[in-house]
Design a protein that fits this description.
Six copies of one chain form a homohexamer.
Chain A: H1 2-6, H2 17-21, H3 33-51, E1 57-63, H4 70-81, E2 85-89, H5 99-114, E3 118-123, H6 126-129, H7 141-152, E4 160-167, H8 170-175, E5 184-187, H9 194-204, H10 209-217, H11 232-244, H12 248-263
Helix pairs in contact in A: 3-4, 5-7, 10-12, 11-12
Bound molecules: adenosine-5'-triphosphate (6 copies) and magnesium ion (6 copies).
One adenosine-5'-triphosphate binds near residues 35 and 73 of chain D.
Amino acid sequence: DFYHALEEVKPAFGIAEEELESCVQGGIIHFSPVIREILKEGQLFVKQVGEANATPLFSVLLHGHPATGKTALAARIAIDSGFPFIRLISPEDMVGFSEMAKVQHIAKAFMDAHKSRTSIVVVDNVERIIDWVPIGPRFSNTVLQTLMVSLRKQPPKGRRLLILATTTERAVLKQLDFYNSFDSDIMVPTVNTYDELLYILEQSEAFSPQEIDEVLGSIGDIHDNRRIGVGIKKILLSIETAKQDPDKVGRFARAINRAIDEDL
Amino acid sequence: DFYHALEEVKPAFGIAEEELESCVQGGIIHFSPVIREILKEGQLFVKQVGEANATPLFSVLLHGHPATGKTALAARIAIDSGFPFIRLISPEDMVGFSEMAKVQHIAKAFMDAHKSRTSIVVVDNVERIIDWVPIGPRFSNTVLQTLMVSLRKQPPKGRRLLILATTTERAVLKQLDFYNSFDSDIMVPTVNTYDELLYILEQSEAFSPQEIDEVLGSIGDIHDNRRIGVGIKKILLSIETAKQDPDKVGRFARAINRAIDEDL
Amino acid sequence: DFYHALEEVKPAFGIAEEELESCVQGGIIHFSPVIREILKEGQLFVKQVGEANATPLFSVLLHGHPATGKTALAARIAIDSGFPFIRLISPEDMVGFSEMAKVQHIAKAFMDAHKSRTSIVVVDNVERIIDWVPIGPRFSNTVLQTLMVSLRKQPPKGRRLLILATTTERAVLKQLDFYNSFDSDIMVPTVNTYDELLYILEQSEAFSPQEIDEVLGSIGDIHDNRRIGVGIKKILLSIETAKQDPDKVGRFARAINRAIDEDL
Amino acid sequence: DFYHALEEVKPAFGIAEEELESCVQGGIIHFSPVIREILKEGQLFVKQVGEANATPLFSVLLHGHPATGKTALAARIAIDSGFPFIRLISPEDMVGFSEMAKVQHIAKAFMDAHKSRTSIVVVDNVERIIDWVPIGPRFSNTVLQTLMVSLRKQPPKGRRLLILATTTERAVLKQLDFYNSFDSDIMVPTVNTYDELLYILEQSEAFSPQEIDEVLGSIGDIHDNRRIGVGIKKILLSIETAKQDPDKVGRFARAINRAIDEDL
Amino acid sequence: DFYHALEEVKPAFGIAEEELESCVQGGIIHFSPVIREILKEGQLFVKQVGEANATPLFSVLLHGHPATGKTALAARIAIDSGFPFIRLISPEDMVGFSEMAKVQHIAKAFMDAHKSRTSIVVVDNVERIIDWVPIGPRFSNTVLQTLMVSLRKQPPKGRRLLILATTTERAVLKQLDFYNSFDSDIMVPTVNTYDELLYILEQSEAFSPQEIDEVLGSIGDIHDNRRIGVGIKKILLSIETAKQDPDKVGRFARAINRAIDEDL
Amino acid sequence: DFYHALEEVKPAFGIAEEELESCVQGGIIHFSPVIREILKEGQLFVKQVGEANATPLFSVLLHGHPATGKTALAARIAIDSGFPFIRLISPEDMVGFSEMAKVQHIAKAFMDAHKSRTSIVVVDNVERIIDWVPIGPRFSNTVLQTLMVSLRKQPPKGRRLLILATTTERAVLKQLDFYNSFDSDIMVPTVNTYDELLYILEQSEAFSPQEIDEVLGSIGDIHDNRRIGVGIKKILLSIETAKQDPDKVGRFARAINRAIDEDL
Ligand SMILES: Nc1ncnc2c1ncn2[C@@H]1O[C@H](COP(=O)(O)OP(=O)(O)OP(=O)(O)O)[C@@H](O)[C@H]1O
Ligand SMILES: Nc1ncnc2c1ncn2[C@@H]1O[C@H](COP(=O)(O)OP(=O)(O)OP(=O)(O)O)[C@@H](O)[C@H]1O
Ligand SMILES: Nc1ncnc2c1ncn2[C@@H]1O[C@H](COP(=O)(O)OP(=O)(O)OP(=O)(O)O)[C@@H](O)[C@H]1O
Ligand SMILES: Nc1ncnc2c1ncn2[C@@H]1O[C@H](COP(=O)(O)OP(=O)(O)OP(=O)(O)O)[C@@H](O)[C@H]1O
Ligand SMILES: Nc1ncnc2c1ncn2[C@@H]1O[C@H](COP(=O)(O)OP(=O)(O)OP(=O)(O)O)[C@@H](O)[C@H]1O
Ligand SMILES: Nc1ncnc2c1ncn2[C@@H]1O[C@H](COP(=O)(O)OP(=O)(O)OP(=O)(O)O)[C@@H](O)[C@H]1O
Ligand SMILES: [Mg+2]
Ligand SMILES: [Mg+2]
Ligand SMILES: [Mg+2]
Ligand SMILES: [Mg+2]
Ligand SMILES: [Mg+2]
Ligand SMILES: [Mg+2]
C-alpha cells in the first residue's frame, strides 16, 4: 500500500525505546497511591512470565476513561521490564492500512515476539485498532478476531510473552466477548479529588500558591466535594493552554469545568 | 483514478493562500461581539502550538448551523497564524475519489504537515468528508477512522501541528465518538437579533434606510423579538437574489422568512 | 463499460438543444397562472447568476408529484436562458453504468460546466440518479455525495453556474440532508381544478365540446369540487389512449378516475 | 461468463416466434369473458403505440396470482401485434448471470428494440428478474433501477416501443415505487367459479361428464359457492397428474382442494 | 478453484448409481404404511413426466424432520425410475465452492439433464445448498434464485425432466417464496409410535426380544403413548452406538430419550 | 497469503503428536468423577467408528464454560485412540487467513482424513473458527457452512472418521442450527465444589495445608456452599500468579473471587 510503503522501516528485533518513551512525555505524576499499585501489579505479571516455567503466555488489559494515562503506564511497565523484545502495536502506525494490511502488521508483531525468549507486546487503544464506532455499531471483525486469537496463540516452546493492551471501552470489549480473552485486567483511575488536583497543579509549577487557591475555588462546588473525574492528560493540556492566556486562572478553571460537565 | 488524474497539481509545501482566501469571499462582518472572541480564541491556540514546547499537537472543532461562516472563520485564523505550512482538506477536492483515495489524500496532507516546523491543517466539513447521510445512517468508517487517528498522531520531534475542523453536525460527531478526539471546540452562531440583521443590511449597501425598515417590519414578528437563527451566508445570498427582483424588499423578506420557518 | 462504449458520442461543449427540446415534447400548456410564475422565477435565478458578480454558484430544486412537468419546465428555463453551455444529467443516459461510471459522468458534466463562462446543469430525476428505492431504503451514497459536493463546488474565478434539479421525492431529499444543499426550490403543481382540466381538454382538440361536458360529468364528483391532483403528462397520455378507443369518453374518464384514486 | 458462453446464439433482430409460442403451450381457454377483455385492451395499446404519433413509448403491467396465465396472455398480445420486432426478457434466460451481465442483457434488449420502427419488449416475471426474496427483503437494486429507467427511456425519434411486463408481486412493485413507472396495468384473474372450472374440465376432454360431476361435488363446499381462486396453469397440470392415477377423480380433487387451502 | 480442481471427474452423462445407492445405505425399512405411499406417489410423478406429452417439467419437494430418510427415499425413487439420466446435486459435493462456482455447478447439472430425453435431478438438502443460517437470517440469494429459476426452466422440445428436492426447512422455503415453485410436495414422517419403534428394533437384530421389552419400557412414558418423533437415521445410529456399550439397553434408551426431549 | 506462506510446513499425513500434547500441558487432574466418564464416552465413540462397519462417520461436540479443559480432553481422547491419522483444526493456525484460505484449510484437513483408514479430526474452538462475535451478531457464514457440510460428508468406502469439536458457545451453535449436525455431545464441567478445589490445590503442591485452609476460608461464602463455577485452566493460572506474590494466599483468593463474581 501507498502509505505502507512510505512509513519508515524499523528493525524487526530490539526495543522500540524512543517510541515508548514518547508515550510517557509528561512523566508519571504520583497523584494517587493507586498509580504505584498499578506499576507493582505490572511488575508481578512481568515476573510471572519472565521467571516461571508454567506461564509462557499472559495477557493484561489496562482500561479507564479517556486521557487517564493508560498508554503511559503500559509503556512504563514495558520499559521497566528489562525484556529484550518490546513491540508497540498502535493505531497511529496503521493510518491508511487496509484491513488485510492491519492483520498482517499485527500478526507480524506477534510472530516477531515469538522469536524472542521473553517479549512484551503493547496493544494500544484496542477499540481504535478494530475501527470501532458506536453507530451501527461497526468494527473490523477480521482485525478483532486476529487480536483475539493472537492473544491465545502459544509461543513456541521455551519462549514467553506478556501482552499489555489498553482501552477506554471496557464495556464494548465485554460485549464483543473480547474482555474474557484477557488473563487479568487493571483499572486506571481519573483524577478525582481536590487534593489530587492540588498535587498536580503544584507539580506543574505553572501557578503560584495563590493562583492554585483561586483555581480550586472556582472548580465545581468544593463543598460538595464532587468527584472531578478528569483524566491526567486533559489536566496537563489545559495547564498548557492556560499558560498562553493573560487570564491564566480563569481559562484553566473554564477548561476543567467544561471537562467535568462533559463527564456527567 | 480518472478524476484524480484530472485535478490540477498543487505544490506539496507552502500555503494554499488563494484557496483559503476564496473561503472568505464575503469578508468577515462583525455583526456580533462573538465573532471577535472566536478569532481571539483561535489566536490563543495558534500561540499554544507555535510557542510552547509542551503542546506539539492540538485540535479544535468549529461547529454551528449551516451557512454560519465556519469555513470562513477557520480560514481567517489559519491565514492570520503566519505559520509556514497551511493545508485545506475539503470534500470539494475529493469529488469522485474512492474511499482509499480519500484516505491517502488525508494521510498525505498530515504527512506533509508533519514535515513543517509549525503547520495548520483545516479539515472542512467533516461530515461530508466521511460521506455522512442520516438515512441508515451511513458513512465511511474507513475515512472516519483515518481522521480520528490522524488527529492523535504525534508529529515527529520538534514539529508542531494545529488542526482546525468544521462541521454542522456536532451531535453526529458525538454519536460517532469523534467529538471527544478534539482538544477544544468553538461554537459559531447564527444571526439571531434584529440589530444584528440591521447591521448586516447596512453593511451590504443594497438597501436604502427606508427599505431596511420595510424589510425588518416584514420579517418574523418583530414584537416577539423572535430569534432569527439564519446563517450569515444565507443572508448575503438572499440579498443578491433580491437585487435582481424589481420587488427587492418583498423578495428578500420572503427568502428570510422561509429560512426562519425551515429552522423551526 | 459495455453499454458505455455503445452510447453515441456527444460534443463535450455546446448546448444539447435537441435533447432538451425533446423534454418539452408536449409544449407548455398554461393551465394555471402558477406555470408562468415558475418560468419567471427561473428567469430571476438565470439573471442572478448571469449578471451579478456576487453569486457565481446557485442551485434550485424543482419538485412535485410524478408527471407534473418538472423536467419540461427545467428544460424550458435552461433553453430560454441563452447561456452558452447547458448540460442535462439524466438517469436515462446512465443505464448500465457502474457506480463509479456514474460518479465520473456527473463529475465530468460539472467540470465541463466549470470551463464555460456561464453554464446551466440540469440534474433530472435526482432520486433515480442515486438509485433510490424505499425498501431498505437503499441508494447509492457514493453518487449522492458526489451530487451534494458538486452542488457546492465553486466554479473557477470568473465562471458562473446555475444548477436546476428535479425530483418527485422532496421528503426523501430532506431525510437525506440533501434538500438543504439547494439555495432555492420551486414547487410544480398537479392539475387540480375542473377548470384547469377543461382548459387542457380544449387545448388538446381531441374532444368535441359535448364530449368534454360528458368527461367532466363522469370524473370524480363534480359537486364536491374535489381536487383532481393528476399530473399534466398523465392527462396528455390518457387523451392519446382514449383516441384509440371507440368509447373515447368512457376510456378517458376511467383512466383519470383511476389516477385520482391512486393519488388518495 | 461460463453459462453465458454456453447459451445458444439468437438473432439480435426479428421475432422470437418459437420462444413466445412455447409460452402459450396450453392455448388460451376462454373460461371467463375477462380473458377476451384483456386481449382487447392489449390490442388497444398496440394500436396507440403503432399508429399514433403522440405516444412513442408505453408500458403495461400484467399482474395476478401465480399460474393465472400472465405470461401466456402477454405472449399472445405480442404475437398478434404484427410488430416487426418482439423480444422476451425472461429470468430463465439469465440463469447464472452476474448482476452486471443481467443489466447488459436487459439494456441490450431495449437498445435492439430502439432500432426497430415498432417494437414490443415482454419483461416476464419481473420479481424473479430482480432476484426478489421476501426475507430481508433482498433484491438486486442495480437490476431494478435498470428496468425502471429502461421503461422511461425514450426511443429515438420515429421509433415506437410497447413494453409488456408480468408479475405475481404487484404489492412488492408498489413498495419498490416501480408500479408507478408503468403507464397502465391489467389484472389477470384466477379461475373462480364452479362454472369456470366446469368449462375447463370439459375443454380438457380428460373426464367423462359423470366424472366431472364427481369432481365438482368433492371440491370445496359447492353450496357455499366459495371462490376457487386457483390459477389456470395449476388446474391444467393437476389434470395431467390425475390422468396417470387409477383414481383420476380423487387425485384431481385432492390436488385442487390443496391448492384452494393454500390460497387461504 | 482449489478444491474444485481436486474433486474427481465424473461423467457428464449417465447415472450416478453408486453415489445414489450410498444414500440408501441403511435400506428402506417399512416401519409404517406411509413409506410405501411415498414411494408410490413418486412412481406416479415418474410416469407423468416419462409418458405423458403434456408435462415436460415437474418438481416435487420431500420435506420432514432431520434424519427421517428424505434423501434415501428421493434416491430410491430416482433409482427405480429407470430414466437414463439421473443427477444428484448435493451440498457435500460443493464444499469450498464460491457462490459463483455453486451457481455454475447447479446450472450445469440442469443443462446436462436438458440433453437427455427423460431425466431426474435430485436436489438434496436445499437449505444447505443455499447456505441458510437462521441468525440474520442469511443465505445465498444468488444460489437461491438459480434454483428457483432452474426449477421453472422448460427443457428443450421433446425433453422431459423430473426434479426431486429434499429439505428439513419447509417453513423457511415458504418464507423464501421458494415452496410455491414446486408443483407438488411429499411429507416424510418421523418414527412416531411404539409399534413402529418395535418393528425397527426387530429388523435391526441387535437386541433380543427381552432387551427390546426393556428398551420400550424405559423410553418416554409408554402409558401416555406419547409421540416418539425421532428420525429413522437417528434410531439406526443409536443402535450402532449401543452395540459398543456393555450396557446396550441403557445406552440406547438414554440416546432415544435425549432425542425425544430435544424434539420438544 | 503472506502469513500463510510463513507458517511452517507440516506433513499431510501422520499424527500431530507434539501439537496435541501441548494442549494437555497441565495434565488431566481428576478433580471429579465426571472427568473419567468423559474420557470413557470418548473411547466408546472411538470404538464405534474404529470397529463397526456400520458407522463410518461420527461427530461429537465437547461444550462447556471457558477454561474448563475442553481442548485438553479432546486432545487426550484423540491421542489415546491409537488411530493412524489425527488432525487438529485450530483458530490459532489460521491467524491472518482470508475466509477462502480458511475454507481451504478446513476442506484440506477433511480430505486428508478421508485418505486414512481411520481418522480423527479435532475442530477446536468452533466459535472462533467461524469468527463469531455477539455484536451484530457476525460470523463467517462461508466457514460455518463448510464446517457443517464437512461434518456430514461421507468418507470414501472403507474409510472411517471421528470428529471431535469444542466450543464454549453451545447456545450459539444451537441458534446457528449447527448443534443438530453433531451425532452426540459431551458437557465439560467447571470446578464447582470446595472439595474439588481442595483436591486441585493439593495436587498443585503450591500451598501448604494451612495455606489451603486460609484460601478456602476466604473464597466465596463457604457456608452457602455456593457453586464455585470456575474453569480448571483459570484456577491453574491463578496459582501461578499467586506464586509470584509475597501475599500468595491473598492474591489467589482475590483472583478466584473475581472469577466467581464474573460468572454471576
Ligand atoms: N500518573 C500518571 N499516569 C499516567 N500518565 C501520567 C501520569 N502522570 C503524568 N502522566 C502523563 O499524562 C499523559 C497520559 O497520556 P496517555 O496518552 O497515556 O493517556 P491515555 O489514557 O492513554 O489517553 P487516551 O485515552 O487518549 O488513549 C502522558 O503524557 C503521561 O506522561
Ligand atoms: N462574521 C462572519 N463570519 C463568517 N463568515 C462571514 C462573516 N461575515 C461575512 N461572512 C461571509 O459569509 C460567508 C460564510 O460562508 P461559509 O462557507 O464560511 O459558511 P459555513 O458555515 O462554512 O457554511 P456551510 O455550513 O455551508 O459549510 C463567507 O463568504 C464569508 O466571507
Ligand atoms: N404546463 C406544463 N408544464 C409542464 N409540462 C407541460 C405543461 N404543459 C404540457 N406539458 C407537457 O407535459 C409533459 C410533462 O412531462 P415531464 O416529463 O416534464 O413531467 P415530469 O414531472 O418530469 O415527470 P416525471 O415525474 O415522470 O419525471 C411534457 O411533455 C410537456 O411538454
Ligand atoms: N385463459 C388463459 N389465460 C392464460 N393462459 C391460459 C389460458 N388458458 C389456458 N392457458 C394456458 O395456461 C398456461 C398459463 O401459464 P403461464 O405460464 O402463462 O402462467 P403465469 O401466470 O405466467 O404463471 P407464473 O405465475 O408461474 O409466471 C399456459 O400454458 C397457457 O397456454
Ligand atoms: N423407511 C425408511 N425411509 C428412509 N430411510 C430409511 C428407511 N429405513 C431405513 N432407512 C435408512 O435410514 C437412513 C436415512 O437417512 P437419510 O440421510 O436419507 O435421512 P435424511 O432425512 O435425508 O437426513 P437429513 O435430515 O440429515 O438430511 C438411510 O441410511 C436409509 O437407508
Ligand atoms: N480434568 C481436567 N480436564 C481438562 N484439563 C485439565 C484437567 N486437569 C488439568 N487440566 C489442564 O487444564 C488446562 C485446560 O485448558 P484447555 O485449553 O483445555 O481449556 P479449554 O476449556 O479448552 O479453554 P478455552 O475455553 O479457553 O478453550 C490444560 O492445560 C490441561 O492440561
Ligand atoms: Mg492511550
Ligand atoms: Mg463550510
Ligand atoms: Mg421528469
Ligand atoms: Mg409467468
Ligand atoms: Mg438428507
Ligand atoms: Mg479450548
